Please model this.
Amino acid sequence: MSWTKVATLDELEVGKPRRVELAEPLCVVRTADAEVRAVHDVCSHQEWSLAEGYVEDVDGRPHIECGLHGSSFDLETGAPDVLPATKPIPAYAAKIEDGAVWVDLEQQTNDAPVPKHY
Model:
């Protein structure tokens, strides 16, 4: 495991995505249920930052909508649920500890490949 601090909890607004540059770009979101989620920041449909999109709850689960064409992804699983995206995005282990937000790129929580246009 290789946890990396990406922000303090106070730096993240609930429901507002934030781009973080590590070995690859990440989109980190503080959710309404007081958790954090981390996914690859590039939409699987076209090369566009998901951090420029919108977060909403769908059936009690946090989703992020790409601001370019409206594709939506489950922030827990990375699965797409609104076209035009049909491929999932990588999702990663994230946690809050002592007021800091940590992500582990070695702990991908799904088997989605990194988008090819990245």
In short: The mean pLDDT is 94. Residues 3-108 form a domain with the Rieske Iron-sulfur Protein fold (CATH 2.102.10.10). DSSP finds no helices and ten strands in the chain. The chain has one domain: 3-108.
